[in-house]
Amino acid sequence: MSTASFELDVPSAYDDHQSASREAQRKADRWMLPGAILMTTAVLGPIGFPLFLKGMAEQRKALLQGLAVRPMICTLLGYLVIMDSGLNSIGWSLDLIAHHSLISRTLVTAWGNMFDSGYFWHYNELWIGGATAPGEKGWEIALVPTVFCMRLAAAIGFLQMKRWGHQWLIVTCWFGVIYWVGYVANMTVFADLRYAHVVFPVWGWWLYDIFYITPFLAIPYLHTVNREIFSD
Amino acid sequence: MNTKTSIDHDRRRRRALLVFQILIYGYLFGAWALQLYMYAHRDW
Fold first, then answer.
1. Residue A3 pLDDT greater than 80, yes or no
2. How close A62 gets to chain B, by Cα (Å)?
3. Which of A75, A155, A212, A216 is in Cβ range 3.0-4.6 Å of A81 for a Cys bridge?
4. With 80 as the cut, is the pLDDT of residue B4 above it?
5. Is A3 a domain residue?
6. A61-97: per-residue pLDDT in tens?
7. Does the CA dihedral A59-A63-A67-A72 come out positive or negative?
C-alpha cells in the first residue's frame, strides 16, 4: 500500500465506523423511544415494553459489534427518567385537568381503591375535581410544569450525550430528592386517610411507587461519571 | 490540580455520596417502618 492510498483509506474507515455507529444507535432508539412513550401512558405499557426490549437488544448487538454507541448505563438511566417523568406528568395531568374523563374515573379510582385512598376518598368532590388527598393538588401543580418537564428535556439531552443533558439531569435528580422526601412525609402524616380501607395498605403503595426512585439511583452515577464522554 | 489532590477530591466526593445514600435510604426505610407500625396498630 502506498503512503498516498494509506492517507486516503484511514479517514474513510473512521468515517464508515462513525456512520455505522450512528445508524446502529438510531435503529435502537427507533424501537426504544416509542416503547418508552407507550409505557409512560401506563395503559399501553404492555405494548411498549416488548418494543423497548427489542431496542435494547439492538443496542447490545451494536455494542458487541464494537460500534461507538451510547453506553448501556446511560441508555437505561435516560429512558428510566423519561418514563418516570412521563408517567407522573400524564397521571397527574389527567387528575388535574381531565378528572371527569372515563379513563380517570376508572383507572385512577381503581388505583386509589387498591393502594392509596387519596385517589378514591371523595374523588371529584372538591371544586377543582380529582384526588382529594391533602396537599396532592399542590404537588401536581408544582411538579408537573416544573420538575417533570425539565426532567423530560434533560433526559432527552442526556440520551443525546450532551453536556447540558448531564448537568440538567443532576439538577432535576436533586429536585427528585426533594419531592420524594416531601411526598413520603405527606403519605406518612396523612396515613390515616390514605391507607384506610384500601386493598393493599402500605406495602402495596411502596411496591408500586418504589420504581419511581430513579433520582436516587442516578445521583451517584451522575456525580462520578467521566464528564468528558458528554459533548457540547 | 495535581494527581494527589485530585484523588483526595474524588475520595471525598465518593464518601459524600455514600453518606447521602445512607441518609436518603434510611429516611425512606424509616418512613416505611413507621407506616407499617401504624398499619399494625390501627383499624385500616
1. no
2. 32
3. A155
4. no
5. no
6. 999 999 999 999 999 999 999 999 999 999 999 999 9
7. positive
Instruction: Name which of A60, A146, A58, A224 is nearest B16 in CA terms.
Output: A224
Is some CB atom of chain B closer than 8 A to the CB atom of A181?
yes
Per-residue pLDDT for A168 more than 80? yes
Which residue range(s) make up the domain with B44? Answer: 1-44
The CA–CA distances, whole Å, from A27 to A16, A57, A81, A148 equal: 16, 11, 20, 27
| Parent domain of A105 | 71-229
Residue at A181: amino acid letter: V
- Rounded to two decimals, what is the model's pTM? 0.86
Are A78 and A184 within one domain? yes
For residue B15, give the chain A residue with the closest CA: A220
- Nearest residue, CB atoms, B39 vs list A184, A195, A216: A195
Please report where in the chains the cell 372538591 appears, as a residue. A126
User: Does residue A5 carry a pLDDT above 80?
Assistant: no
